[in-house]
Write a structure and sequence with these properties.
- The complex is a heterodimer.
- Chain A is an alpha+beta fold.
- In chain A, strands 1, 2, 6, 7, 8, 9 and 16 form a seven-stranded mixed sheet that branches. In chain A, strands 15-10-17-18 form a four-stranded antiparallel sheet, with helices on one face. A four-stranded antiparallel sheet of chain A has the order 11-14-13-12, with helices on one face.
- In chain A, helix 1 runs parallel beside helix 4, helix 2 packs across helix 16 and helix 3 packs across helix 11.
- Chain A is globular, with a radius of gyration of 23 Å.
- The model of chain A has no long low-confidence stretch (mean pLDDT 96).
- By secondary structure, chain B is α+β, with helices and mostly antiparallel strands.
- Chain B has two domains: 100 residues, Roll (Ubiquitin-like (UB roll)), CATH 3.10.20; 140 residues, Orthogonal Bundle (Fumarate Reductase Iron-sulfur Protein, Chain B, domain 2), CATH 1.10.1060.
- Chain B is built from ten helices and seven strands.
- Chain B has a five-stranded mixed sheet with strand order 2-1-5-3-4. In chain B, strands 6-7 form a two-stranded antiparallel ribbon.
- In chain B, strand 3 and strand 4 form a beta hairpin.
- In chain B, helix 3 packs antiparallel against helix 6 and helix 6 packs across helix 9.
- Chain B starts with a strand and ends with a helix.
- The chains are: A alpha+beta, B alpha+beta.
- Chains A and B meet through helix 4, helix 10, helix 13 and helix 15 of A and helix 1, helix 2 and helix 3 of B.
Chain lengths: 606, 244
């Protein structure tokens, strides 16, 4: 059996995106030994792709904004299935997390009076997103990265976990491998923070990077933690649709925040026809008012393009299905039209949306300052994830914490744009703080306590080589899973299709058990793909099982056979965990009653 | 569907060689699509570093037909497909395997550079800064750390002076702090003595390959050189310092 290196920390952080880095900084500040594992090189995690901004009620652009409005917006966007405590903490603490970034060297775009500028975004009542053009994620991850490397933190880049380790009912570390030389590594820790991001790679059309294979969710599930809200997958309304090879790449909501409009092939702004009841009073009913809103007119209501993502995505799908789509199966997103309003529109667009300008110019030969873009829905975000305590981010397993996209609760059934970056920082910090405190009160265990778990992880790691290149092709299984999930458990779902999906997943699981790979362990992408399959299949099954169970439509979960919201389902979260025989068990967990003050915050912002 | 040939550098160390792969190509494809297709069907164990496939993370740097580029942002229709397309790893860093190089040097050097240091707040207790004052450092902060500029820098690539010179990527990292109105650190002496900014002879190769279009030489390196000259070599400035 191959050997392994051993590393010991007080707190082990799995993931080096926004949540992982912020957790690491906080844990290091508490004076404990911190190790960080990142699946890629530092600074490349999926956070880098976030574009539009980070939501925080700073009130720099509209002083009517405050945490109560942000809280109410987040709850309404999530159809009130959110963990309200997390929504409260998030709204209260996000402004400090933004300011802190600036004090660590981030340079946000500025207001005329020299403060951090904020922009409009879907579902946010006031301009709330601190941003840097359309590359906010890059700014945040670089700031955190540059700050973190100056702290006492050890980084293990290009390293992936195969399993979490468990002893005496506690999580005591993880076992994995590093990519470069393919060596196995044992990480013993008193507390572990999962910050591994989402599951977008379970679908064919996605804005997510290759790392998003549901690692944290699957590791936690296998370790016995509960997951909740996993039926809620966010399909971002605007991904690129052409050329085929770039299908799914994100087109920021910031385009619409800056005045971009959605039209069908008849030139009609179709979103005006379908405004949900609970947003009608706050939505503009004519183009002129919508434009004024995007230009900061406080008396104007927001254009329907800035309704929540679930709604806009479904409307786009409807237009395409009805034959009113663009030539390549999307609709038109037009920012070029603002030249009617702004004499310097070309420079303005390039300044505000530089990445979008380059992305379309380079990948689609299209100048967005002159022509409309073609866009359609793309798998973007996972609202569901590991169940955590709202204050401490501890999961159901002692010593195991989770933060960011891999944790659940803040977003309920649908996430508002801009609430993800703030989620990472608010709850990354909390997870780091509480993991460090937990570590200070608990003893480490030795490798001997987890010997069997290590042996079985190595066995799993070696298996694809034993079967060799004549085994099942890992890439082929991954592609089939992605295509199947896209078709059967995508933006619109039915009982029959999800039943079919479960059958397909079972079939793919059998094939995954025979996956083989040639070559050696050194930087072998085929091996990595083979080892990620377990996680992808686990999260795919969880999403499908929960989707089948929730017989209603709400937020990111839309069922053609149950197209309406159901009041009873509005009172419960679905929670899934691993039963004693390994099968998935589900429970309906009633939504906890909200304290009076929070109910009032919602009422006053209706 | 047309077929093109991709001549990919495979192997580790001395054992490396070009291998030709035929691959079907379609409209709109980028080089990384072809590499993925080859990896999935003909070369499962091929080492390729990539993440976002959207030009935002800077992971998939390579030399395509000898030109340093991001594989995810290089359209096949920009290449002559009647001849084999060569794809090689970056040359200025140690080779690991196939298309992957060891870029850890960049991380190690960056860690040694004095980090951002916050200046005291203004009279109102906050840190105000105006857009016109942050436009320049924001340009440098667009850097996605693809290290293509390091790859083409003669000082690093041809003269292997990694011990003495930090290269264009890290010079703009210094520049974004030096030009940040909220930073009060001073890295000029280090620029002169440790980072040896003088080694740069402004051939602008770095600027030409930057996928983010950052004006590395004109907007960062030359102004930094000027600051160093003003600080250490300007006779009037020296006199002024003596009498101060």
């Amino acid at each position: 059996m191959p050997g392994y290196e051993t590393h010991e920390y007080d707190v082990l952080i799995v993931g080096a995106g926004g949540a992982g880095l912020r957790a690491a900084i906080e844990a290091a500040a508490a004076g404990v030994r911190v190790g960080v594992i990142s699946k890629s090189l530092l600074g490349k995690a999926h956070t880098v792709m976030a574009e539009g901004g980070m939501a925080a009620a700073l009130g720099h652009v509209d002083d009517r904004d405050n945490w109560r409005v942000h809280f109410a917006d987040t709850m309404r966007g999530g159809y009130y299935l959110n963990n309200w405590r997390m929504a409260e903490l998030h709204a209260k603490e996000a402004p400090d997390r933004v300011r802190e970034l600036e004090q660590w060297g981030a340079i946000f775009d500025r207001t005329p009076d020299g403060r951090i500028l904020q922009r409009n975004f879907g579902g946010h009542r006031y301009p709330r997103l601190a941003h840097v053009g359309d590359r906010t994620g890059l700014e945040i991850i670089r700031t955190l990265q540059d700050h973190a490397v100056q702290q006492s933190i050890t980084f293990h880049m290009e390293t992936t976990l195969l399993t979490l380790l468990n002893s005496g009912g506690r999580c005591v570390g993880g076992f994995g491998y590093e990519r470069e030389r393919g060596r196995y590594k044992l990480f013993l820790a008193k507390a572990v923070v999962l910050a591994t991001g989402g599951i977008g790679r379970a679908f064919q059309i996605t804005s997510n990077s290759w790392e998003y294979t549901g690692d944290g969710q699957a590791l936690a599930f296998q370790a016995g933690a509960a997951l909740r809200d996993v039926e809620f997958v966010q399909f971002h309304p605007t991904g690129m649709v052409w050329p085929p090879s770039v299908r799914g790449i994100l087109v920021t909501e910031g385009v619409r925040g800056e005045g971009g409009v959605l039209r069908n092939n008849e030139g009609k702004r179709f979103l005006f026809d379908d405004v949900p009841e609970n947003y009608r009073s706050s939505t503009a009913d004519n183009a002129e008012e919508g434009w004024r809103y995007t230009q900061g007119d406080k008396s104007a209501r927001r254009p329907p393009e800035l309704l929540t993502r679930d709604h806009v995505a479904r409307c786009i799908r409807r237009e395409v299905r009805a034959g009113r789509g663009s030539p390549h199966g999307g609709v038109f997103l037009d920012i070029a039209w603002i030249k009617e309003k702004l004499p310097n529109s070309v420079e303005h667009i390039k300044k505000k949306l530089p990445s979008m300008y380059h992305q379309f110019k380079q990948l689609a030969d299209l100048d967005i300052t002159q022509q409309p873009m073609e866009v359609g829905p793309t798998t973007h975000y996972f609202m569901g994830g590991i169940t955590v305590d709202g204050d401490t981010q501890m999961t159901g397993i002692d010593g195991l914490f989770a933060a960011g996209e891999c944790a659940a609760g803040l977003h309920g059934a649908n996430r508002l744009g801009g609430n993800s970056l703030s989620d990472l920082l608010v709850f990354g910090k909390r997870a780091g703080e509480h993991a460090a405190a937990y570590a200070s009160n608990h003893a480490a265990v030795g490798a001997s306590a987890v010997g069997d778990q290590i042996a079985s992880a190595i066995q799993r790691g070696e298996a694809p080589f034993e079967r060799g290149a004549q085994g099942e092709n890992p890439y082929a299984i991954q592609h089939e899973l992605q295509e199947m999930m896209q078709n059967l458990v995508g933006i619109v779902r039915t009982e029959d299709e999800m039943e079919q999906a479960l059958g397909a997943i079972a079939g793919l699981r059998q094939r995954a058990a025979k996956v083989g790979i040639g070559g050696n362990r050194e930087y072998n992408n085929g091996w990595h793909t083979a080892l990620d399959l377990d996680n992808l299949l686990t999260v795919a099954e969880l999403v499908t099982r929960a989707g089948k169970e929730r017989r209603e439509s709400r937020g990111g979960h839309f069922r053609e056979d149950y197209p309406d919201k159901d009041a009873e389902w509005g009172k419960v979260n679905l929670e899934l965990s691993r039963g004693p025989n390994g099968a998935i068990e589900s429970r309906k967990i009633p939504v906890r009653p909200m304290p009076e003050d929070l109910l009032q915050a919602i009422e006053e912002n209706k | 569907m047309a077929t093109a040939t991709f001549r990919i550098w495979r192997g580790e160390g001395e054992q490396s060689a070009y291998v030709d792969y035929p691959c079907e190509v379609e409209e709109g494809m980028v080089v990384l699509d072809a590499v993925h297709r080859i990896q999935a069907t003909q070369a499962n164990d091929m080492a390729v570093r990539w993440n976002c496939k959207a030009g935002k993370c800077g992971s998939c740097s390579a030399e395509i037909n000898g030109m340093p580029k991001l594989m995810c942002m290089t359209r096949l229709n920009s290449l002559d497909l009647s001849k084999p397309v060569t794809i090689e790893p970056m040359k200025a860093f140690p080779h690991i395997k196939d298309l992957v190089t060891d870029v850890s040097w960049n991380y190690e050097v960056k860690k040694q550079i004095p980090p951002f240091h916050l200046r005291p707040p203004g009279a109102d207790g906050t840190w105000r800064a105006y857009q016109k004052d942050v436009d320049r450092p924001q340009e440098f902060r667009k850097c996605i750390e693809c290290f293509l500029c390091q790859d083409v820098c003669h000082v690093l690539r041809d003269h292997h002076m990694h011990e003495k010179f930090i290269g264009p990527r890290l010079l703009i990292h210094v520049a974004q702090m030096e030009m940040n109105p909220l930073d009060d650190g001073n890295r000029l002496e280090a620029l002169k003595d440790e980072y040896n900014i003088g080694y740069c002879n402004i051939t602008k190769c770095c600027t030409k390959v930057c996928p983010e279009g950052i004006h590395i030489t004109d907007n960062a390196i030359i102004p930094l050189k000027e600051r160093v000259v003003d600080e250490f070599y300007d006779p009037l400035h020296k006199l002024f310092k003596i009498f101060k």
